[in-house]
Amino acid sequence: MKVLCLSGSARAASFNSALLAVAAADLASRDIDVVRVAPAELTALPLMDQDLEAASGLPEQARALKAAFHKADGVVLACPEYNGSVTPLLKNVIDWVSRPDEALPAPACFQRRPMALLAASPGALGGLRGLRHVREILGNLSAMVVPRQFALAKAGDAFDAQGALRDSKNQEAVAGVIDDLLYWMEAIHGKG
Q1: Residue 63, class by beta-carbon neighbours within 10 Å (0-12 exposed, 13-18 middle, 19+ buried)?
Q2: Which one, of 101, 126, 147, 106, lies nearest residue 18 by Cα?
């Protein structure tokens, strides 16, 4: 099985990207093919603009992301919280991937695609408020957002020098989200 891993932050020292790396390592330890999207691939996307789309079609970066979503059996999104909601970077990705395209219609990228949500923040809620908005957006696109999610609070102190989570309970919470993702991937795609 193949899982696409994507962070909604392009910041070099992003807590969300660090948490995504923990999830990707968990997936790899279970012999899952992990595909990581580099932040540079996301920042290269122009802002979603229907006039641009009408004039020249989908940008090549958007086509590549649509293909990556379509090829994945599941998706893990690390979702930073900006002002209690989704980041512009992550929203832009979702908006472009959801655009109609003859070669790859939008529903093919989201429907029957289990998606797991993680967040990390130096605050006490760990980005939890933003996850609600991401869940709602993906649900509107018919994605199967797995029930369990994880918001890592006080992320500034949560990682050791090697990028591992210091608290085993946090590691278990990430593993639990991955368990849910794999369960729904198996249920939907029948692979395993």
Answers
A1: middle
A2: 126
d(CA 142, CA 38): 25
Amino acid at 16: N
Residues facing 144 on adjacent strands:
114
Per the listing, tokens 């006490």 go with 124
What tens digit of pLDDT does each residue of 3-23 get?
999 999 999 999 999 999 999
**Cβ atoms of 70 and 108 closer than 8 Å:** yes
- pLDDT of 101 reads 84
SS3 sequence of the chain: CEEEEEECCCCCCCHHHHHHHHHHHHHHHCCCEEEECCHHHHHCCCCCCHHHHHHHCCCHHHHHHHHHHHHCCEEEEECCEECCEECHHHHHHHHHHCCCCCCCCHHHHHCCCEEEEEEECCCCCCCHHHHHHHHHHHHHCCCEECCCCEEECCHHHCECCCCCECCHHHHHHHHHHHHHHHHHHHHHHCCC
CA–CA gap between residue 52 and residue 168 (Å, rounded): 47
Please tell me the pTM assigned to this model.
0.95
Say how far residue 190 (Cα) sits from the centre of its chain: 22
The Cα 74–Cα 56 span in angstroms is 30
Give the whole-angstrom CA distance, residue 174 versus residue 172: 5
